[in-house]
Amino acid sequence: MYKKTPKERANVACEMKGTIKKQKMHARFLNTFKPSTPLRPFLFALSTRKPRTRNQIKRNRRTKTNPFPTIFSLPNELIAEVVARVAATSANDFFNVVLSCKVFNRIAEDNYILRHVTLEKFPVVPWGSTEQAFFLDKCKRSGHPEALYREGVIKYFSFAKVEEGLNCLNSAAKIGHLGASYVLGVILLCVEKTEEEGRRLLSYVRSESGIGESRKKLKDIISVTWLKMRLKPKPNSCPMQEQHRRRRGWPSDSDDEVDCEACGCHSEVDFVCNLLRGIITY
Ligand SMILES: [Zn+2]
After folding, report:
1. Ligand 1 centroid to 254 CA: how many Å?
2. Which listed residue, of 95, 102, 123, 230, carries a Cα 20 to 30 Å from 75's Cα?
3. Ligand 1: distance of its center to the CA of 211 in Å?
4. Is residue 63 pLDDT above 50, yes or no?
5. How far is CA 231 from CA 157, 188, 267, 270, in A?
6. Cα–Cα distance for residue pair 213/207, rounded to 1 Å
7. Which InterPro entries does the UniProt entry name for this protein (predicted)?
8. More confident residue, 26 or 85
9. How many A from CA of 280 to the centre of ligand 1?
10. 260 alpha carbon to ligand 1 midpoint, in Å?
11. Distance 281 CA to ligand 1 centre (A)
C-alpha cells in the first residue's frame, strides 16, 4: 500500500483546513446577512421606488402629456377667435357650439364673441320670445353694433326716447356701423347746430357705398314698428338746388349720382322724413 510522504500529508491537511475555513465563513455570512429593506412581494420587490399614494397617481395622470391633443389644448384667445368666427357666420351653429360643452358655454359669454354674433335671423322686435329678447339685450350690453343700431332706432322713433336712442346710435356709429351713421347723420341734419356733424356722417356712409343698404335697413325696421317720433327737414341750403335737382332727377339709392354735398344730404333727409310718414321715395 502506498503511503503518503509527510510533505503530501501536510498538503492534504492544509487543503482540508482551507475548505473548513471557507465553509465556516460561508455559514457565518448566511447567519449574519440581513437585507437593508424588507423584501416586497412580486413586482414591488424588484423596484426600489416607494409606492405611490392614490393622490400622487391622480396628479400624475392629470399632468401626463396627452399624445392626442384636443381643441382645449389651444390658447383661450385662439378658441375665442374660432367661436367668434362661427358666431359671425351662423347664429344656429353658435348656439350648437355653446350647448356642446361647459368650456364653450363659458367662453361664449365673452363680450368679444357676443359682439360678432350675426343677428340676421333675429327679428327686429322679438315679440313674445323672452329668450330672444334676453339674448339681444346681452348683445347690446356687450357693444354689438347691429343690436345697438336697432335699439337706437326703436328707442328714438318708436318710444320717442331721444337721449337713449341717440346714445345707442352714437355708440354703434363710433364702431363704424354704416346704418347707425346714416340715421344719426339724418337726425343731426334736422337739429340746430349739428348740421356739420350730420354732413360728415353722411359723407362717411357715401364714401363706404352704404347709402342704399342703410336706406333698406331703416325701412325694414320702420315697417315692423309703430312710430311716435317724426323728423322735420330744414330747407336745402344749396343756392344751385334747382339745377342740381334737375340733373339728379328722382331721388335714388345709388351712391354715385349725387355730386353736390348739400343737395345729397337734403335728399337723404327727405327720404327718411317721407319714410316716417309711410312714403317710400325710391
Ligand atoms: Zn346742390
Report:
1. 17
2. 95
3. 18
4. yes
5. 9, 10, 14, 10
6. 13
7. At1g67623-like, At2g35280_TPR_dom, F-box-like_dom_sf
8. 85
9. 22
10. 5
11. 19
- Give the amino acid at 161: K
Which pTM was predicted? 0.70
C-alpha span between 170 and 177 (Å, rounded) = 10
119 Cα to the center of ligand 1, angstroms: 38
Q: What spacing in Å lies between the alpha carbon of 237 and ligand 1's midpoint? A: 8
Burial level of 211, CB count in 10 A (0-12/13-18/19+)? Answer: buried
DSSP 154: I
The answer to whether residue 46 scores a pLDDT higher than 50 is no
Name which of 58-62, 77-81, 131-135, 242-246 the model is least confident about.
Answer: 58-62
Report CA(188)–ligand 1 centroid distance (Å): 19
Cα of 21 vs centre of ligand 1, distance in Å, is 129
Mean pLDDT in residue range 149-173: 96
For residue range 119-151, list pLDDT tens digits in order.
Answer: 998 998 888 788 999 999 999 999 999 999 999
Compute the mean pLDDT over every residue in the chain, rounded to the nearest whole number: 82
